[in-house]
Amino acid sequence: MLKEDIQNRIDKNYNFKFNQNAQNLELYPYFNEVSTASSPVIKVNGANMLNFGSNNYLGLTTHEKVLSESIASLKKYGSGVTGSRLLNGTLDVHKKLENKIANFYNKEASLVFPTGYTTNLGLLSSLLTSEDIAIIDAQIHASVYDGLRQARCTIRSFKHNNIEDLEKTIMSCKIKPTVCVVEGLYSMFGDAGNIKAICGICEKYSITLIVDEAHSVGVLGNKGRGAAELQQVMDKVDVFTITFSKSLGSCGGAIVGPKKIIEFVKVNAKPFLFTAGNTPASLTSALTCLNLLDANPSFIKELHQKKDFLIALLKEKGITPLSKDGPIISLALGNDDQVITTWKKLMDKRVFCNPVLFPAVKKGKGLIRLSIMRTHTIEQLKLLVSSLESVIQSNTI
Ligand code: PMP
């Protein structure tokens, strides 16, 4: 039995949308069980489905080289480092990966974290204080918010990707903001950040610019370094954060930027110091994926070819995604019921995708979020579009 105060708190605050027990399970879209590797076809809740719900944009989680190197790493280093990086959890592979990332981004240094979430959390919570103002895009990821909240700094957001509002927000601050944090590719709408213009504003007001390229690494730019590379402003961005959990087929994240910032964060970030280091196999898979990306820029072209093919096909059917910038193809649906009903109909047609509801987006502005992989076949993309077409036609609400 739970103690009464805790029981009451839970009863009062339960978000029933996310409560598997309180829902009609048929229409419950979360925590589906996948029993295969992340590929274009996966088994979800025991049924084979087309996978349009993964962030495995380059399809590298099952690449032969990634698997063989990761297995060798598991055998060499064992299953876990069992301790903080500070004390006993730093492997030579951490160092190799950090060097690789720093070189890839042409920056002085890099620091690897256990997840992308703790990367932003660690960087921002250690670098900023209650004296600072941080400027963020209104669509910024929760990990950035949480890092800033932990730092207790003042958070000022500007309208999504809106440069005039960014400048207005900066000018309305009583003291000069310390940092501006934006994303290279936004995870819900799928649109690229206007990094070039943001660089100009940050330069004008002497504000340190941090760009989270979580979804854009491996996806944007000739070498796959993200939106800043695509917009040719890599040297104007002070610090990048990335994750390994999307195109880099693993789990973990990294900061990359000036040595002085990296060295400071390394000995001050609690989400870095008070948690165990990455598992050896996950480090090696990230490193192998990065090496593969570096050696095969054609991967990025292949992904964009698939994306362009899909968007052209959608256009023929009168379906317009929110953005054409990358592999996140979001369709505006409306209220929660419309989103969930559409998601369920797609599942019935063996199409797995992600419903996006409030609070990830504004109330009544729910989305169906499809993400494509380099390894999807043309046939699979055609199947997706024919399923979408019939589901959208059948929607009456
Ligand atoms: N930043 C952004 C922009 C993200 O979308 C995410 C996760 N979706 C993260 C950071 C956190 O990354 P991870 O899931 O690897 O912890």
TrEMBL record:
<dbReference type="InterPro" id="IPR001917">
    <property type="entry name" value="Aminotrans_II_pyridoxalP_BS"/>
</dbReference>
<comment type="similarity">
    <text>Belongs to the class-II pyridoxal-phosphate-dependent aminotransferase family.</text>
</comment>
<protein>
    <submittedName>
        <fullName>Pyridoxal phosphate-dependent aminotransferase family protein</fullName>
    </submittedName>
</protein>
<dbReference type="InterPro" id="IPR015421">
    <property type="entry name" value="PyrdxlP-dep_Trfase_major"/>
</dbReference>
<keyword id="KW-0032">Aminotransferase</keyword>
<feature type="domain" description="Aminotransferase class I/classII large">
    <location>
        <begin position="48"/>
        <end position="387"/>
    </location>
</feature>
<dbReference type="InterPro" id="IPR050087">
    <property type="entry name" value="AON_synthase_class-II"/>
</dbReference>
<dbReference type="InterPro" id="IPR015422">
    <property type="entry name" value="PyrdxlP-dep_Trfase_small"/>
</dbReference>
<dbReference type="GO" id="GO:0030170">
    <property type="term" value="F:pyridoxal phosphate binding"/>
</dbReference>
<dbReference type="InterPro" id="IPR015424">
    <property type="entry name" value="PyrdxlP-dep_Trfase"/>
</dbReference>
<dbReference type="InterPro" id="IPR004839">
    <property type="entry name" value="Aminotransferase_I/II_large"/>
</dbReference>
<comment type="pathway">
    <text>Lipid metabolism.</text>
</comment>
<keyword id="KW-0663">Pyridoxal phosphate</keyword>
<dbReference type="GO" id="GO:0008483">
    <property type="term" value="F:transaminase activity"/>
</dbReference>
<keyword id="KW-0808">Transferase</keyword>
<dbReference type="Pfam" id="PF00155">
    <property type="entry name" value="Aminotran_1_2"/>
</dbReference>
